[in-house]
Amino acid sequence: MTELEILQRAKMYLDKLANGINPLTDQPASDSDCINQVRISRCLFYVSDVLRKVIENGGNIGKAEKIRKQPFTITHETLSSFRLSGVPISVSEITKRINELVDESAMDKLKYTSISAFLLQSGFLALSAAGDGEKTKTPTKQGNSIGITSEERAGQAGPYRVTVYNTEAQQFILDHMDAIIEINNRKSMRPAADAEYRGLPWTSTYDETLVDLFRKNVPVSEIAITLKRTESGVLARLKKLGLIEKYSYGK
What is the pLDDT of residues 142-151, one digit of tens each? Predict the structure, then answer.
């Protein structure tokens, strides 16, 4: 008999005792038996519940050792099962549908902020001031061209605007999942607070500086500091300019 089986049998005995049953004969104990005293019964129920938690924890006392998850990844074959929506949907809904395709117990989730970050750095979204002074992400003309739009919806606090993605925009995100995953799994991304120009369009002057620094083999982290961009934003621009194939330079 294994240790876990012993614990399960002990709990079964305690449950019967707590209910006034002799666990060896399965007969009700007499009213005068000590196990029918309220305080004894409560104590037995309490210990039984403790054993239940130990059993659910695999027989370990205390917290179970947390399994370290793998970074998010997904194959192109698995992505082909993504349910494209004929009705424009939000980026959080797109993210939810992607995460449903993988085993979330074994790996980290894809974050919707990673998709937004890719679209910001690639010029499909831009940061703009909302009515409450907060920054909000809105589609640019380039974003509109691939099916990213903004629509007004009614909420309990009044109307609000939400950015949505049609079928073409959803497919665009799937087609660029490798770049999005790189952003999602990057542990050492520079904080947004250090990237003053994050999400702003790239001008020809910035492109020239970027290309010059890249060809001089300046590390991506230093290029990001110089241009006041995030590292992933620099990598996305380098890829767009055809200077790298994947987000692998300067890791």
Answer: 999 999 999 8
Instruction: Give φ, ψ of 128 to 5 degrees.
Output: -140, 155
For residues 33 and 112, membership in a common domain is answered with no
Q: How far apart are CA 10 and CA 4, in angstroms?
A: 10
Q: How far apart are CA 159 and CA 231, in angstroms?
A: 36
Q: Which of 185, 216, 233 is the last residue of a domain?
A: 185
pTM recorded for the entire structure: 0.52
Total number of domains constituting the chain: 3
- What does each C-alpha distance from 89 to 82, 114, 164, 177, 226 come to in angstroms? 13, 17, 5, 18, 37
Q: Going by DSSP bridges, is the β-strand pair 148-155/125-129 parallel, antiparallel, or unpaired?
A: unpaired
Summarize pLDDT for 224-238 with one digit per residue, the tens.
877 888 878 888 888
DSSP category for residue 102 = S
For residue 61, tell me if it sits in a domain.
no
**Cα 11–Cα 13–Cα 17 angle in degrees, nearest 5:** 115
Contacts of 17 (CB under 8 A, 6+ apart): 23, 35, 44
Nearest to 128 by CA among 161, 105, 152, 156: 161
